[in-house]
Every structure is written in structure tokens, then in C-alpha cells.
Amino acid sequence: MTDIPRHAPQPSDAESNAITALTTPDDTAKAVVIYSGGMDSYTVLHRALRAGFDVHALSFHYGQRHSRELETASQVCQQLGVAHQVVDIRAIHGLIGNSALTDADRDMPGGDYDADNMAATVVPNRNMILLSLAIGHAINIGANVCFYGAHGGDHVLYPDCRPEFVDGVNAVAAIADFNPVRVAAPYLYVSKHAILADGLAMGLDYAQTWTCYLGGEHACGQCGSCRERLAAFAAQGVDDPLTYAAPEKMS
Questions:
Q1: Is the pLDDT assigned to residue 26 strictly greater than 90?
Q2: What order of strands is seen across the sheet that includes strand 145-147?
């Protein structure tokens, strides 16, 4: 099992080198990938496949406002022949519903993707919950590595995408069971446009992803998630293959 080359054409050398290797000598052949259907986890999924892992993808329905990402994830895994489960944990919605991503009665913030206006999209303890379930699944199937798509652009807003969180959950995952599991976020120190560059270098089709916080026929182009995605494509000098209801112009 070998890691794929880190060939990202556009980001700086520092960003490219910060994309961490997927494999270690102790890894099992199997790996669990938390796969939302968005850009970041889509790229992680393909990196894990190219590294030679027997990938088991997990998607979670925790009461999101829409299921477009989940539908996209299912379609991709079916096309790739990847083992995939959509895990319905909507029973916990009442415990984590205080977010614009899970409460349809709340306004979805627009504008730039930063802490000042996107704090309403934080889902309480989301990655701790999802990783706990994914780690359990990894142990159950004989895998000792679990990947998720946290990246450097999330650090300003989401505590459960920061290096300190990954370090902490790894410490717990090493002692919570007789079978330790490694939690890996290969894009933890790089921006979204570096993730996109890595995916484009792999020849990935980002029409097979969904990023918008809303679940309309077309991506809204106005929410922070859409704006961050559009900025990543603009940074690469590539057109986004998704259609937008009202795309922001990113220079």
C-alpha cells in the first residue's frame, strides 16, 4: 500500500507539502472514510482509494436541512463500487438541532466564509459524534484507520476541524478499545483551493459533489459554503461544473 503523489499544480509548495500522507506501515488494508458527498470528503475518498485501501464509506443523516449531499454520495459510491452506508441518526436531532444546518426555521447566513457570519452553521459536537461512530465501525470491520475531510480553511470557524481536536480524538481512539484506530485528516493544514488542486490533478469530476448549504435544484451561490467553493475554483482558474442560481463572481 503506497500513498499517491502529492501533485497539486496551483498551491504554494508549502501548502502542497502540508497535505499529509494517507498511509502508515501499521495500517490495515481496510479504511473507513466519513463521506458527506461534498468536495473535501470526495477528494479524501479518492485519495484513500488510490492509496490502495479497501474503502468503507459512511455518510450520516443527522437531520440536515436537505439530503442532496447524501444522494450524491450514494451515487458516487455506487459508480465506484465502494461499500457505502448512509447511517440514519436523526433520532439525535433534538440534541444537536441548534444550528442553521439542522433547523429550517433559522435563516441561512450568506456572505464570506468566516467566523463573523457563519457561526450559526456550527452543529454542536458534530465531528465528535460522527467520528465516534466511524471509529466503532472501523473496529467492527477490522480497519484501524478512519479518514475525514477537515481542512485548514475550517479552523477559523469549526473547533472540531482543528489540529488540536484531531490530536485529542486520536489520543482517545488509541485507548477507547482493545483495537486502536488512527484518525487522519490529510488536508488538515491546507486550504480548500489546495484540496481542489489535488483533486483536479487526480482528474476528479467535481460535478459529482454538492457543497451548498441549501438543497435547491441548483446551488444557491450565496451561502458561505458556495462562496468558498467558487473562490477555490477561481483560484485554480477552472470553471465550477455545478450550476448556480445566483453565483457570486470570484476574482
A1: yes
A2: 83-88, 54-61, 30-34, 145-147, 182-184
